[in-house]
Amino acid sequence: MKTLIRIAVTIVISFYSAGFFKASAQMKVPKKTFIGLLNQGKYDEVYLQAKKLRGSIYGKNALLDYFIAKSLCLDGYKEKSEEEFQKIFKNYRLSANQKQFLNKEIDNCFSPSVTTTSTLTSASFNYLNDARLPQGGVSGKMGYVITDCFKPDQYADFSNAKSDDELNERLFGLNQAAAARKKLDSILPDDYEVKNAGRFMVVTLNQKSISDSRVDQLTQRLERVFQFYVSYYNLRYPDKLLTVYLLPSSLELRKVANIVHGIKLPANSLGYSCLADLSLLGISTPEQLLTLYHEIFHLIVRTDVGDIPAWLDEGLASLYSTSHWENGVLISDKVIWRTDILLRASRQRIESVHVPTIKSMINYSWDSFDGVKADYKNICQASVNYSLANHFLIYLQKKDKLKQVINAYKNRPEVDLAAKVEPADNLKIFEDTMGEKISVTELAFKDWIQIEYGIYLSSASY
Fold first, then answer.
1. Residues 6 or more apart whose Cβ sits within 8 Å of residue 146
2. Higher pLDDT, 344 or 416
3. In terms of pTM, does the model score above 0.90?
4. Cβ atoms within 10 A of the Cβ of 209, count?
5. Nearest partner of 50 among 39, 38, 59, 40, judged by Cα
6. pLDDT, tens digit (0-9, with 9 covering 90-100), for 70-79
7. Beta pairing partners, 277
């Protein structure tokens, strides 16, 4: 399928790692221990330990969710197991191999040949062990162009990404700045320099040397944003240093991404963050740090909301990438570059690009939000989805609902073996938080965006 569309938009590309089956930056999932316990038939022990670990910092991750689903399957809770597997599909970005692996696991769960005497080995988890990619976001933008919406090189290439073990070796405690600098110096070419200020390691080009006083100033700004996210949303602190790569151009960003993470970025990338080594990279200057505000949000929110829905994660990060301070709170700017994307999409009638309803967007999996289908990727649709999420989160900020929404997903109900009702999905959690049906919220949002931005969104049925 190849469609060329004249779409005068700024395109957003945002990705987390295709490799989600991995330990987080702050905790180790005892994979070998869990496999051994499953082989011994101690399914309850795996289930209970995994649920307990889920309460840790960065504990809400797909690897633990996998072991919860697997233990339920082997213990005979087939339907509950499938519910947990489907949550993984819904709430985490997955590579094609990982989706294939999970589908096979679901099929195996319902196969008569699966018994409690099944033997599991590390070889049984090939895709699980092949999770080498950084759990970070890659975000970028391009200007007014004639865009092939289905051109694959508009997405990041993770095929040569660094291993999980290699990335974890770059994690250092807050009092280990000297060791962190030594490690970074061993990775980077001689034309980069590394400085430390507080919880941040700052990497810049030598030729763009930044004085110690300017490093202090920029890290103070980043620290203010960091503290705001933690306090405003009641999130826990990561206890490791964060590495900030302050890069002057797209060329340098792509160069460093390849050196540091083994990622091949598209030419229009602006920045990304990597949860595996707690790093954030962006085309920024000490005066212009909004890209890094975006990326810090991705890192911090996952301390407690690792399964955050796509629309909420990217919508909020986008909101903070065009924001300013008001009375100690980061507030979205009124004029944002994504408005043009949504305005044009609402006026154009193109089969391959549409503005989804809010109901649909809240229900989207990461694949749907990113414009990913079984046999193609639609970057234009992803751009529209991100733009809609950005504006919807501005609306929720105006309604003073951001804290409540984040808190609701942070405290989403865990699997309950005794429950006889369907677990609350993303849409039900949102409706309960707002105290109204989604149709009411949708109509109010449409009125608001038409008044505030002159964007008319066509009616949708519910």
1. 4, 5, 6, 7
2. 344
3. no
4. 10
5. 59
6. 999 999 999 9
7. none
